Q: What sequence folds into this?
């Protein structure tokens, strides 16, 4: 069985995919992943997940360009400039 | 995108390929062969160094050398996993290797004769390998590029360990200095052949597909530029009277023996047979363990 | 006490040396990496204990004559075959736990060793579970059992028997050396002996 290995470098950080080991069960996978991904003290923790348990997700529809949900969906430069000019004219 | 031309433009433009993506048959075949050769090299590279683990002259050197060789086995594991995910099972890679049907790098076909070899291998052979490996960080095939990050990071201590071994000997007894010089004299030829003959990048399929991101001669020049000054500053000599850096900053050297390289990598090196036989012996002897453990 | 510590250090040195022989040729690559860590840990333990006894751990590790070592016959055996190697690992770890925990009372470094050995014990037990029904493994255990008894003191042997569930037999005691140890010592010291004493490496 293939076990995917996710490692957390330091406490508080995200677990990142680091590689995989071939092992008959979780016990062997642990013994082996501990050394392959941690013998230098380079990992705070590991998650071992059988490859079959991973559900692969890819491909998003983006047909109508709904940019209002993102920062790049907004262009405030021109209006900001005008607002500042008007404010200056009022006080000036 | 099942169009070879479009794929070519994609990878040449820096595009990355994942395991499940469509790839041209030629790309896949070349990729598997290249990566498998790398895995074989890491595994065969263990054997010349292994005998010195048992002979290390201090506890510290024993630990460091064992750890270095352990890393190489670890690298083989990472590399064969990539090959397996591309469709070639590990067992087949290993049987092809011991049956002489697959290649591994020239340097691992040569004998190691003294503790001087241990230093020279860790310092210079590993340095030559790291230059190639750093170029692979940009490999178009992403799973391989990703493992190269871990490999390069781990190799950084190997060179330092090698240099430390060499420095201890060149500042030790005259006999120890001679051990280093003698080993260097023997390893220089294979080292100069290591990066392959200077085929222009655009004629090298590995470069065209952006599996490699560096031409052979570039790699060799990088090696010479980095390491010849380090060799000379210790008072060691390089056994090539034509070796010099010209006014354009290009290193000139005697033409390496390309026939020797071809002869060796096709399975005729001084230690090829013996090492493959050694590996075959243990592969066969321990088949029952894999059957007992890995069978579901 | 020093005799016990030297026995511990020499056991760890020699079993670590033997185990390091598997680097590159273990049955599977993942196990090769893990097994090498165990070998390195053992050498590290040997060094830590030698340092309790001397300022020059390397001299103590390398420069004695073979008959001056205090290692148990179990660790001296040259066993480049997996069933025997794992049988030895398993028997050794059980025996070592008994011996090391007894020393922990007086020797702080023994507690550190014990904590690291927890992983070795897990590894050995994992393999023991997998191979316990394999005839070759059982034969290897039977063959090595008298040697395993020699690792612990006579008063500790009943405990060892109860943990591995085997009947006590006549032990192969410390102080005996086979040919394989002389060969190992020769190989181990060949580079070191090639330079004058005190040479740096």
A:
């Amino acid at each position: 069985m293939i076990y995917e290995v996710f490692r957390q470098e330091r406490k508080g950080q995200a677990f990142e995919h680091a590689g995989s080991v071939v092992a008959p069960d979780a016990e062997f996978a642990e013994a082996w992943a501990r050394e392959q991904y941690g013998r230098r003290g380079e990992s705070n923790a590991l998650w071992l997940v059988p490859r079959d348990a991973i559900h692969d997700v890819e491909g998003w529809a983006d047909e109508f360009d709904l940019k209002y949900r993102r920062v790049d969906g907004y262009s405030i430069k021109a209006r900001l400039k005008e607002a500042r000019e008007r404010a200056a004219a009022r006080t000036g | 995108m099942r169009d070879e031309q479009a794929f070519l433009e994609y990878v040449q433009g820096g595009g990355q390929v994942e395991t499940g993506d469509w790839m041209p048959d030629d790309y896949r075949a070349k990729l598997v062969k290249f990566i498998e050769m790398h895995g074989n090299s890491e595994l065969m590279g263990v054997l010349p160094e292994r005998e010195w683990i048992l002979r290390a002259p201090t506890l510290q050197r024993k630990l460091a050398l064992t750890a270095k060789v352990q890393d190489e086995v670890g690298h083989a594991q990472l590399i064969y996993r990539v090959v397996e995910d591309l469709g070639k099972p590990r067992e087949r890679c290993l049987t092809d290797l011991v049956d002489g049907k697959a290649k591994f790098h020239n340097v691992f076909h040569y004998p190691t004769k003294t503790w001087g070899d241990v230093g020279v291998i860790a310092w210079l052979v590993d340095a030559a390998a790291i230059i190639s490996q750093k170029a692979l960080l940009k490999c178009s095939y992403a799973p391989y590029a990703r493992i190269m990050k871990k490999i390069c990071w781990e190799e950084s201590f190997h060179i330092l360990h090698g240099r430390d071994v060499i420095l201890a000997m060149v500042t030790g007894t005259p006999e120890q200095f001679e051990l280093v010089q003698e080993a260097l004299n023997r390893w220089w030829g294979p080292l100069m052949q290591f990066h392959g003959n200077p085929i222009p990048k655009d004629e090298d399929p590995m470069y065209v597909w952006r599996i490699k991101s560096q031409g052979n001669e570039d790699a060799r020049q990088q090696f010479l530029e980095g390491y010849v000054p380090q060799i000379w500053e210790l008072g060691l000599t390089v056994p090539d009277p034509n070796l010099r850096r010209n006014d354009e900053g290009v290193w000139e050297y005697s033409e390496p023996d390309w026939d020797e390289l071809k002869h060796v990598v096709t399975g005729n090196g001084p230690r090829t047979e013996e090492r493959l036989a050694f590996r075959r012996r243990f592969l066969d002897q321990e088949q029952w363990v894999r059957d007992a453990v890995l069978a579901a | 006490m020093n005799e016990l510590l030297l026995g511990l250090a020499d056991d760890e040195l020699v079993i670590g040396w033997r185990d390091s022989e598997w680097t590159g040729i273990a049955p599977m690559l993942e196990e090769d990496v893990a097994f090498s860590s165990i070998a390195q840990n053992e050498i590290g333990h040997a060094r830590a204990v030698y340092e309790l006894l001397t300022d020059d751990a390397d001299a103590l590790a390398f420069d004695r004559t073979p008959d001056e070592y205090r290692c148990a016959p179990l660790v001296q055996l040259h066993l480049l075959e997996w069933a025997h190697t794992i049988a030895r690992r398993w028997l050794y770890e059980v025996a070592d736990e008994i011996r090391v925990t007894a020393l922990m009372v007086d020797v702080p470094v023994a507690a550190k060793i014990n904590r690291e050995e927890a992983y070795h014990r897990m590894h050995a037990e994992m393999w023991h579970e997998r191979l316990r029904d394999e005839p070759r493994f059982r034969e290897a255990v039977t063959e090595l059992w008298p040697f395993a008894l020699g690792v612990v003191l006579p008063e500790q042997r009943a405990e060892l028997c109860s943990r591995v569930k085997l009947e006590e037999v006549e032990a192969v005691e410390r102080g005996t050396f086979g040919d394989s140890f002389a060969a190992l010592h020769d190989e181990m010291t060949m580079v070191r002996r090639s330079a004058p004493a005190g040479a740096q490496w």
Notes: The two ends of chain A are 76 Å apart (CA to CA). The first strand of chain A starts at residue 2 and ends at 8.
